[in-house]
Known about the structure:
The protein is 25% helix and 24% strand. By secondary structure, it is an alpha/beta fold. The chain has an eight-stranded mixed β-sheet with strand order 2-1-3-6-4-5-7-11, with helices on one face. It has a three-stranded antiparallel β-sheet with strand order 8-9-10, with no helix packed on it. Helix 5 (124-136) crosses helix 7. The longest helix has 22 residues, at 177-198. The radius of gyration is 19 Å and the shape is globular.
Amino acid sequence: MSDLICKVAIVGGTHGNELTGIYLIKKFARLPELVKRASFECEILLANPRAIAANRRYIDRDLNRCFASDDLANHHLTGYENNLAKQIVARLGTKDRPQTDLIIDLHSTTSNMGLTLLLPDYQPFTLRLAAHLAQIYPDVRICLAANNEVGNSRLRSLAPLNLGIEVGAIAQGVLDARLFHQTQMLVTATLDYIDAIDRGERPVVPASVTVYQSIGSIDYPRDPAGELLATIHPDRQFQDYQPLHSGDPLFLTFDGEAIPYTGTATVWPIFINEAAYYEQEIAMTLTDRQEIGIESR
Length: 297
Ligand SMILES: [Zn+2]
């Protein structure tokens, strides 16, 4: 594939209560020169208008799980987000016939993820981009998604190259000035990088970079009816990206009893205690920290 990028889409409000991306898209709509670059077309999109108006993650179904090819072709799926997904596909292109080269999807999280770049499973172009951003901004962390069905159902999977920007910790329905401006900074640096590549320049990238490879998730302890039996242990709360060793306290029951991590391998949890993931039965996502080399071009 050629590295030439002709069209980029920046998306906010895929989740209607994540205000950082929503207000950044509104700012870009007001000041389009901020996202205009000479070498490619840039489209901005507020993905879920009804959820944004309602200040909810979604109306009927998580929009960011509606883009699996089978679901898009299924005319029996008629919820608001399923219909919306078909409209978004008409605008941004399908997986089979992409009309957008690269999608940047803006999210926020109640977990203490700082500035996180979410990449599809190993992809040289976006990995170089992320390594470039991490070199400029050392606080940036890079996560590689597991290559699974969830990944293929995300909005950003409509483009062959895609990047999620996940910032936190921030409550749903809340803005934070520092995270807002840092998100804009990452978008600006991303657009500048793509523009430089398109113009034949070679932006600096480090020889290797630390990545957090998603390896699965664990749920809260629950009773057979699905009721929670414990919370995240206070020693683990807000400790995203910190190593979790076998025997470390992980949950705390409502009676005050610590439940340890029983896995044998050290892992690096992220999305710890994310509000939106209680219903998805995810207490945290586990990652493996790796140092990987960056291919030179
Ligand atoms: Zn989100």
